[in-house]
Amino acid sequence: MAAPKIVTIQSDLDIVAARMAARDMAKALGFGAIDQARIATAISELARNIYLYAGEGTVTVREARQGVRKGIEVVCEDQGPGIEDVSLVMQDGYTTAKGMGMGLPGAKRLMDDFEIQSTVGQGTTVICRKWLR
Amino acid sequence: MRRHLGHHQHPNTTNRRLSRGIGSSGPHDAQAVQFKDKVLQKIYDTKAKGVIIDLTAIDVLDSFVGRLISDIAAMARLMGTTVVITGFSLLWQLPWSSLVWSSMGSLPLSTWRRELRSCAG
Questions:
Q1: ipTM above 0.90, yes or no
Q2: Which residues contact A23 (CB under 8 A, 6 or more apart)?
Q3: CATH code, residues A5-131
Q4: How much is the pLDDT for B105?
């Protein structure tokens, strides 16, 4: 079992580190090149959200297991301002001035499972998984 | 942009590598923004008719990089310059279409070789 990797997000350099960690883990778990690109792209979006909106947080990349299924699980956590209306930010095209309006819904489409929990004033946690086929 | 143009370079084309220093892990955001500023400054300085942006050094084409490239193209167009994208990895096509197509869909995608040929007339 591959060891989990935790990347602390504090600068834009850490976004690169987070997506590399996700890609390396995906590769080690046996994901193909296109799925590696999908996972790296999704984590790039999520890590950038931490950097842009919370300032700092962590991205944890680890192996996921569910019965016989094997995959990758990525947990993105911050203690930032939180999201007031989660269903709004999950809509395509919703954007703050900083974004392109596809970070969260785009990341959701790139992964298989996607859960988001957010409390205003306390922070946001995104857990996403992709399963090996 | 790649350097090895060799003898095939047309006398009227100049090739300037603006993306120096980007490692195999791809650029971080600040580098990407610097790249945009440099490209636009070069277009202004040289009055270039066309710009080829080669994406080979990009490891992940996320919405940030996508927006940056479409911004460059939009501003270049305002300055009368055509932008062509090369080095668009096949690996990105599926992730990118999940993420967004609209903004870059209007940019001509091409290969470096084909563009060189057309630059050389």
A1: no
A2: A36, A37, A39, A40, B59
A3: 3.30.565.10
A4: 47
